[in-house]
Design a protein that fits this description.
It is built from nine helices and eight strands. By secondary structure, it is of the alpha/beta class.
């Protein structure tokens, strides 16, 4: 398999926002590779979270790790530019939330970030027919977006395997990311199905020892 080295992306949705800078420093020191931003607009999804100001504040605080921005917003394009300016590394979006998917992908790349497409549990992989050659990341949601701490939706395992086959057949280095209900007890199975990038929020931030949790996750992934 053309798998890339595994990435653990810590989702700050589950962090303590009263001390966010310290939380992000701690989780990176504990071994997280990326910081994952869940950006919700109370329109595309039923919740309101964080915007570009928080991204900018973390960069200003000294965070140098890649910031992986998942836009659960409609419309998309204006926030792409604002997050790029605020220091995002990766920006991914839901095709249903963009009027012109190719234009949004191009906008992300032209703004200096790496583009990703996000598919909800019931959204078809058919979107890849026209976009796979343009993206650097495919994020499969294993919960319906909107809230932290949900249970992993089982049929996503089969979808992950199909996505892995398509990415391998394409031959480009496209990351296959999973987000939703990723825990220590299922991360091995998720890796087996083909994911190489794992978003974990409550599983890390809800644990007593971030480092021990991330090490255990890496060990489970390495067994695959």
């Amino acid at each position: 398999m053309g798998m890339q080295s595994p990435v653990i992306a810590a989702s700050i949705l589950s962090a303590d926002f009263a001390r966010l800078g310290a939380e992000v420093d701690a989780v990176i020191e504990a071994g997280a590779d990326w910081i994952h931003f869940d950006v919700m607009d109370n329109h595309y999804v039923p919740n309101l979270t964080i915007g570009p100001l928080v991204c900018k504040a973390l960069r200003h605080h000294g965070v140098t790790a890649p910031i992986d921005v998942h836009l659960m917003v409609d419309p998309v394009d204006r926030l792409v530019l604002e997050f790029a300016e605020a220091g995002a590394t990766w920006i991914s979006f839901h095709p249903e939330a963009s009027r012109h998917v190719d234009r949004t992908i191009r906008l992300i790349r032209e703004s200096g970030c790496r583009p990703g497409l996000v598919l909800n549990p019931a959204t078809q992989l058919g979107w890849l027919d026209h976009t796979l050659a343009q993206i650097d990341l495919l994020l499969l949601m294993s919960v319906n977006p909107g809230f932290a701490g949900q249970q992993f939706i089982e049929p996503v395992f089969a979808k992950l395997a199909q996505a892995r086959q398509r990415i391998d057949a394409d031959g480009r280095a496209v990351r296959l990311e999973i987000d939703g209900g990723v825990k220590l007890d299922n991360i091995g199975a998720i890796a087996r199905a083909g994911a190489d990038t794992f978003v974990a929020g409550s599983a890390i931030f809800g644990s007593k020892d971030y480092g021990a949790t991330i090490r255990a996750m890496r060990a489970a992934i390495a067994k695959v």
